[in-house]
Write a structure and sequence with these properties.
Layout (H helix, E strand, L loop, with lengths): L2 H6 L18 H10 L2 H8 L4 H88 L21 H25 L1
Length: about 180
């Protein structure tokens, strides 16, 4: 068997009879080389690169995949950070809108309270006025007739003196009403 024929035989099919000893190598030495996968003859016979090159290739591939994985991880972390930033900005904007709405509602409530206070004051004033008028009407019959002016006379026929007297009598009657009210309270 020639040397070129030996190279064509795969490592698994080599037997003692197929290997010639003219090369100076023993059958065991040849098998050891083939099993280890070293040397040019092993590369030519098996079609595979020697072991150290295969390790280097896988190391390079692993390094490249780790670099790509690190780049992807970095991109993922950037995207996550950007998303968190956007979410925070969105939440801050919503919080500002809610604060503005709350401030507006607080102002509306204050305005409503002011209106209610004014309304209550008006109601109280009207009640006081109603009470005083009612009191005056109820006690009108109790007062002597001399305290009140006579409104049945025709004012057009009365003289200026009569008008002055009527005004003074009206002032006196108001004073008397106030005094009588103070006495009853």
């Amino acid at each position: 068997m020639t040397r070129s024929q030996t190279r064509r035989i795969s490592a698994s099919n080599i037997s003692q009879s197929d290997v010639s000893q003219s090369d100076g190598e023993t059958h065991l030495g040849m098998l050891k080389k083939l099993r280890r996968g070293r040397g040019t003859s092993a590369r030519k016979l098996t079609g595979k690169p020697p072991a150290p090159l295969a390790k280097a290739d896988t190391t390079l591939l692993m390094d490249k995949s780790q670099e790509e994985q690190a780049k992807l991880q970095l991109q993922i972390s950037r995207v996550e950070r950007d998303l968190k930033t956007l979410e925070v900005k969105k939440l801050e904007k919503e919080a500002q809108m809610l604060q503005a709405q709350m401030q507006k509602k607080v102002l509306d409530i204050k305005a409503a309270k002011a209106e209610v206070a004014v309304g209550n004051k008006i109601v109280k004033d009207q009640r006081d006025l109603y009470s005083s008028v009612k009191f005056n009407i109820n006690h009108l019959g109790d007062a002597p007739s001399s305290d009140f002016p006579d409104f049945t006379t025709d004012l057009a026929t009365s003289s200026e003196c009569d008008e002055e007297e009527d005004d003074s009598q009206l002032g006196m009657s108001i004073d008397n009403l106030v005094q009588s009210r103070r006495r009853t309270l």
